[in-house]
From TrEMBL, chain A:
Main location: membrane
Stretches assigned to the ABC transmembrane type-1 domain: 86-275
Annotated protein name in UniProt: Peptide ABC transporter permease
Keywords: Cell membrane, Membrane, Transmembrane, Transmembrane helix, Transport
Localization in the cell: Cell membrane
Automatic annotation (TrEMBL), chain B:
GO biological process, one term: transmembrane transport
Keywords per UniProt: Cell membrane, Membrane, Transmembrane, Transmembrane helix, Transport
Record GO cellular component, one term: plasma membrane
CDD domains assigned to the protein according to its UniProt record, in alphabetical order: TM_PBP2
Bilayer topology term: Multi-pass membrane protein
Domain of life from the UniProt record: Bacteria
Primary site of residence: membrane
Protein's organism: Alsobacter soli
Name of the protein described by the UniProt record: Glutathione ABC transporter permease GsiC
Length: 288, 314
């Protein structure tokens, strides 16, 4: 690309980021997501108590000035556990979606660009992965590999692979036929050079939009896995495992059920608002 | 039509074979001896030796896969590690409760979502539209087990109105069955309602802008007739597509909802089996759920051909 073309390519991008923040829903989404990220990164500085240290003098105490969100059955501060719990949600959400995006996009690019048997093999594998309800597949993978942070990330990434692969393939098949790709072929560029330099950047936008929407479902899936005891293992706090624990104390400590769920809800809402906003920017056909 | 159906059925074969391969390989990924994984730690040596011979564990992996597949096709899913019951009847007995719960959830979601979506679209950019759209987005962001717990908290703990969990057969105690059905069905239906409402709204907006709707209005037809007979009839295709996808979500959603409400369906069976390391049941449940999912997708495609004759030609 020439310098002039680069300058032109930069311009609309700046426009849509500004437009995105002017949309009040997307701005709220960005704020909620940023809040979660700040809590996750700054947890040790922000949390008023240690999230894993029991305090047997303050078991199941309701929300108060000292413990804003109350304490759990071991006297641990619920607010601090929620702040530290943001880490598992954000880490699993970001890494699983990023992993699925990179691998899925690569697979879809190869399938769409090379066609023939490459396409057939890759897409049949994706079809099979798509033939499982996502929670069930994630459950089965973590059940077989054992519950841990890494395996939760791996499971959620595998579940999301076919989504990215299908989008990347469809986009690649469109871009492949465009004149500037023909031009590059005529100029003597090899297939890999064309794939990486020309096709990949041109299919990025829909993948990024889909990625932002999948953060929401990845975080919900992570909370399901830890709710079932198949995510990050105790005593490290996760929002899902806090809710699992809350079920045993619904009559004595209902606040244990309120706050972790609210945290999941707000973060997922944030990602959904952000994803909706991004989709509106990129896809003018979607009417609101 | 017959040719179309045959083609669609044919395309299922590689997918079903693929899912069976995944279910087969899942057990091979469990660290250690697959025979021990399938029979449990307490199995005696003769039983282990017999199973090793049956699974052809001394043969190459592809031979093992095909002998396992042959057994599955004959209905031999193995035996549960807990209690030694055959897996297939175990799965069959869990299907009923899951089907009842799913049907109730789907019904609840449609009753809420279709009118809400149509109203939001016809009154676009009014307070009613914003309210419905915002509630739908919240519903989409609500983790279903949290909604379930909140419902238990409200209707079983604070106001003891409904049982918090459990199941009785509708044949034995219809009233008791319904009382236990309400909370899980609402929990499961809420998330479905949210996405159905959004899809209904988007599809209706698309159709309401079309020329024939303008013509119908210009002819002086009653607005309700235009909305339902002209517009909604044509907005059904994306909604049916979504419903097909949602049946898959339902099969996943029941895993969580059944666990929260101790509803003895296929989802709870799967989770219990995972915790008991009851791999034959896990394997069977995964295979059955995936097969159901694939068949539901086929059924969705067939429903298109009924709603939209154009698909048949294509």
């Amino acid at each position: 690309m020439t310098d002039a073309a680069l300058a032109n390519a930069e311009k609309p991008r700046r426009d849509w980021t500004r437009g995105l923040l002017r949309d009040p829903r997307a701005a709220l989404g960005v704020a909620l997501v940023l809040l979660a990220v700040i809590l996750a990164i700054g947890a040790p500085l922000i949390a008023p108590f240690d999230p894993e240290t029991p305090d047997f003098g303050a078991i199941l105490s309701p929300p108060s000035a000292e413990h804003w969100f109350g304490t759990d059955d071991l006297g641990r501060d619920v607010l601090s556990r929620i702040i530290f719990g943001a880490r598992a949600s954000i880490v699993v959400g970001v890494l699983s979606v990023a992993g699925a995006l990179v691998v899925g996009a690569a697979a879809g690019l190869a399938a769409g660009f090379f066609g023939r048997w490459t396409d057939a093999v890759i897409m049949r594998v994706m079809d099979v992965l798509f033939a499982f309800p996502s929670i069930l597949l994630a459950l089965a993978i973590t059940a077989v590999l054992g519950p841990s942070l890494q395996n939760a990330i791996l499971a959620i990434a595998v579940v999301n692979l076919p989504v990215f692969a299908r989008i990347a393939r469809a986009q690649t098949m469109v871009v492949r036929e465009l004149e500037y790709v023909d031009a590059q072929r005529a100029l003597g560029f090899g297939p890999w050079a064309i794939l990486l330099r020309t096709v990949a950047p041109n299919i990025a936008a829909p993948l990024i939009v889909q990625g932002s929407l999948l953060f929401a479902s990845a975080i919900i899936t992570e909370s399901y896995l830890s709710f079932l005891g198949l995510g990050v293992q105790p005593p490290a706090p996760t929002w899902g495992s806090m809710l699992r624990n809350a079920i045993g104390f619904l009559d004595m400590g209902p606040w244990l059920a309120w706050f972790p769920g609210l945290a999941i809800f707000l973060v997922v809402l944030g990602f959904n608002l952000l994803g909706d906003g991004l989709r509106d920017r990129f896809d003018p056909r979607e009417t609101r | 039509m017959g040719r179309y159906l045959l083609g669609r059925l044919g395309s299922l074969v590689p997918i079903l074979l693929g899912t069976s391969l995944v279910a087969f390989l899942l057990i091979r990924l469990v660290p250690g001896d697959p025979a021990v994984a399938l029979l449990g730690m307490e199995a005696d040596d003769t039983a282990l030796a017999a199973l090793r011979a049956k699974l052809a564990l001394d043969q190459p992996l592809w031979v093992q896969y095909f002998s396992w597949l042959a057994a599955i096709l004959k209905g031999d899913f193995g035996r549960s590690i807990q209690g030694g019951r055959e897996v297939l009847p175990l799965l069959a007995s869990a299907l009923g409760p899951t089907a009842l719960l799913s049907a109730a959830a789907l019904a609840i979601s449609l009753v809420i979502a279709i009118p809400a979506g149509v109203i939001a679209a016809t009154r676009r950019n009014t307070g009613a539209d914003y309210a419905a759209s915002f509630v739908a987005l919240c519903g989409l962001s609500l983790p279903s087990f949290w909604l379930g717990i909140l419902l238990i908290l409200l209707f079983s703990v604070q106001i003891p109105l409904l049982p918090a969990s459990g199941y009785v057969s509708p044949l034995v105690d219809p009233a008791g069955f319904l009382a236990r059905l309400v909370l899980p069905a609402v929990t499961l239906g809420a998330a479905l309602a949210a996405s159905t409402m959004r899809m209904t709204r988007a599809a209706m907006l698309e159709v309401l802008r079309s020329d024939y709707v303008r013509t119908a209005r210009a002819k002086g037809l009653a607005p309700s007739r235009v909305v339902w007979r002209h517009a909604f009839a044509n907005a059904q295709i994306p909604i049916v597509t979504l419903l097909g996808i949602q049946m898959g979500q339902l099969l996943g959603g029941v895993v969580i909802t059944e666990t929260v409400f101790a509803w003895p369906g296929i989802g709870k069976l799967t989770v219990d089996a995972i915790f008991a390391r009851d791999y034959p049941v896990v394997q069977g449940a995964v295979l059955l759920t995936a097969a159901l999912f694939v068949l539901i997708n086929l059924a969705t495609d067939l429903v298109y051909t009924v709603i939209d004759p154009r698909v048949r030609v294509a």
